[in-house]
């Protein structure tokens, strides 16, 4: 029988998903129940810090306002409490005011599932929704 084989080096990465909205403006994809439109091409930033170690990975939203940021590097030194997601600004000139979270605020990660990826395992997290709004509704 003997001892079991040791686990090979496991590459653990992080994947974070979320959505970016424009509240109040009726852009393409407007959803009446949310009174919001998805913002395409919004930049999203995953930033993790643990002591002297840091990692930043950018992603962008698709036409539905959805983003999935995936770390390509080893992310094992970080846990969800070390990381936040930021959407620094809106790509829509008429929808620039940060509503949720506020300006320069990030959202924490919420664990969703482990996903098997080629060569390793990914912890999949949700950041939630980011919302911007126009400073003047007539500028939508």
TrEMBL record:
List the keywords (alphabetical): Signal
Looking at the record's lineage, which domain of life comes first? Eukaryota
* GO CC annotation: cell periphery
Protein name according to UniProt: Uncharacterized protein
**Organism from which the protein derives:** Digitaria exilis
Q: Which PANTHER family match?
A: OS01G0164075 PROTEIN (PTHR33470), OS01G0725900 PROTEIN (PTHR33470:SF52)
| Database matches in Pfam families | Pollen_Ole_e_1 (PF01190)
């Amino acid at each position: 029988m003997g001892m079991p084989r040791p686990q090979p080096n496991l590459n653990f990465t992080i994947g974070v998903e979320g959505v970016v909205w424009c509240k109040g403006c009726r852009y393409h994809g407007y959803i009446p129940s949310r009174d919001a439109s998805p913002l395409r091409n919004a930049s999203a930033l995953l930033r993790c810090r643990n002591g002297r170690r840091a990692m930043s990975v950018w992603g962008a939203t698709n036409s539905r306002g959805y983003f999935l940021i995936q770390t390509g590097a080893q992310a094992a030194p970080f846990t969800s409490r070390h990381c936040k997601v930021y959407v620094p600004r809106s790509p829509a000139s008429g929808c620039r005011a940060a509503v949720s979270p506020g300006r320069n605020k990030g959202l924490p990660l919420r664990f969703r599932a482990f996903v098997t990826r080629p060569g390793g395992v990914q912890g999949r997290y949700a950041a939630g929704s980011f919302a911007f709004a126009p400073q003047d509704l007539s500028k939508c």
